[in-house]
Each structure stands twice: as structure tokens, then as C-alpha cells.
Write a structure and sequence with these properties.
- By secondary structure, the protein is of the alpha+beta class.
- The chain is built from 7 helices and 18 strands.
- Strands 6-7-13-11-12 form a 5-stranded antiparallel sheet. Strands 1-2-5-3 form a 4-stranded mixed sheet, with helices on one face.
- The longest helix is centred in the last third of the chain and has 19 residues, at 269-287.
- The radius of gyration is 20 Å and the shape is globular.
Length: 305
């Protein structure tokens, strides 16, 4: 399936297709070179699309909200599939369950839960991005993780088939889940608890205010850059290593939270990667701890790490 044939396929199925799409327009960091092809399918058109891409051996990656990802400056080979049109939510208030497609914004799901008196997700207040990304990375904050409410997940396999995994099958761990690398999260069923909407919203607002007081939520970033080592916060290690305020080009270690790197202007992916290496070296030299990246890094090689 050459790109011209892919274009015809997408037009025939009403899939939005764009060529040489700048990824900087689709990431919270405002960084990223062009993707050869960007596609915006809905859930009904995705299985056939994936089946054809797999058959023709066209490489593809899937991106949700673009919030925990760094796209390299030279862009991305092949196809980028965006899940933004996979955004349907079905609520069963009587059973306290909710089915959300992968492209649903996490905060939209939380707000719907609050509105209908469903508790369990308010600890994820303020985490940007989509449901698919939250599940793949087992998003969490304030002692709450997405795994706490996931009942089951539907995955799309390369042959176009759909596989359902229970929460126990997902192998959730700290900021990760055991999802086959060649599969795509389609949707998830969440199991919640009944509570008064006022009480849920009260907790939600408390979490939001605390997050705003500790994290640079209004600045362009990719969220936490490194995972927390056991029993200590990566941000504290980076701070204690004297890294706050360090910068390469327009990428700066946040003065508010050292595990956030801010794009202060026209920062590049190369700048970001160089700063990651500098910070990682300082932490290793001072504490003997090797920090593991939390953000997803995608794209054609540029700066070699």
C-alpha cells in the first residue's frame, strides 16, 4: 500500500489523511518534525486500516494526546495514527461502569464521573492526555493509578482482530502495562464507586490545586521526564543534584518541579535529549542512581544518545 494507494483508501473511508504533518502541532511540548503521513481514523475504520498497513509492511505509531511524548526534530517515518476521533463514552450509572474509547481525554472522563457521582478517578486530576496513553503508562498521582479502576481493555491486533484483556491480564506496574507491542488500545471498561458528586468534586479540586502549586502545569512540557526510583522521587534527586534551572537552548529544568523540562521558546528535541543526558549524569555522579526515562521518545535519529 504505497502512500497514493493509502490516500485513496482513506478517502474512500472518510479518514482524515495529511502528508508531512508537523508533529509540533500535536504535542504538549510544541516540539517535533514532520510525520510522513498523519491519519485520524475513528474506531470503526481502524481495524481495516491496521490490517492493510500490516499487510503492506508500512510502519506506524499511535499517538493519543501527545502529552508524554518527545518527537525528534527530523520527524517520523511512515504513518502516525492519532486517536482523537476515537472519543465515545458510554456510561452505565446503575452498574457504576463506564466504557471509554482510547482517544477520550482523561479529564473529560473524570468530569463525567464527577457529574454522575462515580468515584475512583479524582486522584488523576490534572493529568493531561488520553485514556489510551493513561492505560499504557498506568498514569497515576496522589496515590491513585488508572489500574485501580480498569476492569477490562479491548486491544486491536495487527490482523484486525480484537482481543479483550482483563485488568489482571494487563500486568500493570509502575508507569507501565503489559500490552503487546504490536497492539493498539481501542477502549476500556472502568469500574467505579458511587459517591455524592459534591464530595467527589471537592476532592478533585483539592488535588488540582495541589498539583498547580507543585507543577508547572501551564508551561509546555511532556510531564515527568524520568520515572521515580524505588522509595524516592526523581524530582528530588534532580533538585538535590543541583539541576534546577539548567538548560540547553530553550529547554529548561523547571524551577518549580525538577522532573519537568520546559520549552521556554523554540526548544528542539535535540536540546531536550542533551539536557536529559546532562541531568542523568549529574544524578548518577552524585547518588549512583541511573534514572529511567518516563517519556516516550519517537522519531528519526538525530542526536545520538
Amino acid at each position: 500500500m504505497e502512500y497514493e494507494v493509502l490516500k485513496e483508501f482513506c478517502i474512500s473511508r472518510n479518514i482524515d489523511i495529511r502528508f508531512n504533518e508537523p508533529m509540533s502541532a500535536h504535542t504538549s511540548l510544541k516540539i517535533g518534525g514532520p510525520a510522513d503521513v498523519a491519519l485520524f481514523p475513528d474506531e470503526t475504520s481502524l481495524p481495516e486500516l491496521i490490517k492493510n498497513l500490516t499487510k503492506e509492511e508500512i510502519p506506524y505509531v499511535v499517538i493519543g494526546g501527545g502529552t508524554n511524548v518527545l518527537i525528534k526534530d527530523r520527524g517520523i517515518d511512515g504513518v502516525v495514527i492519532f486517536t482523537s476521533k476515537m472519543n465515545n463514552i458510554t456510561l452505565n450509572a446503575e452498574r457504576s461502569t463506564l466504557n471509554a474509547e482510547a482517544g477520550c481525554l482523561l479529564q473529560k472522563v473524570i468530569n463525567l464521573c464527577i457529574e454522575h457521582g462515580l468515584s475512583g478517578m479524582e486522584g488523576l486530576a490534572g493529568i493531561p492526555g488520553s485514556m489510551g496513553g493513561a492505560i499504557a503508562g498506568n498514569a497515576g498521582s496522589f496515590g491513585c493509578e488508572i489500574k485501580d479502576v480498569v476492569k477490562s481493555v479491548n486491544l486491536l491486533m495487527p490482523d484486525g482482530g480484537i482481543k479483550e484483556l482483563s485488568a489482571s491480564d494487563m500486568g500493570f506496574q509502575y508507569r507501565s502495562a503489559n500490552i503487546p507491542s504490536d497492539s493498539i488500545i481501542l477502549s476500556a471498561v472502568l469500574s467505579l464507586k458511587r459517591d455524592e458528586p459534591f464530595e467527589i468534586k471537592k476532592r478533585f479540586i483539592e488535588f488540582i490545586n495541589e498539583k498547580k502549586s507543585r507543577q508547572p502545569v501551564s508551561k509546555p512540557s511532556a510531564g515527568c521526564v524520568f520515572k521515580n526510583p524505588k522509595d524516592i522521587a526523581a524530582g528530588k534527586l534532580i533538585d538535590d543534584a543541583g539541576c534546577k534551572g539548567m538548560r540547553v537552548g530553550d529547554i529548561e529544568v523547571s524551577e518549580m518541579h525538577a522532573n519537568f523540562f520546559i520549552n521556554t521558546g523554540k526548544g528542539t528535541a535535540d536540546d531536550f535529549l542533551k539536557l536529559m543526558d546532562m541531568v542523568g549524569k549529574k544524578v548518577k555522579d552524585k547518588f549512583g542512581i541511573i534514572l529511567e526515562q518516563e517519556i516516550r521518545i519517537i522519531g528519526r535519529s538525530g542526536y545520538i544518545r
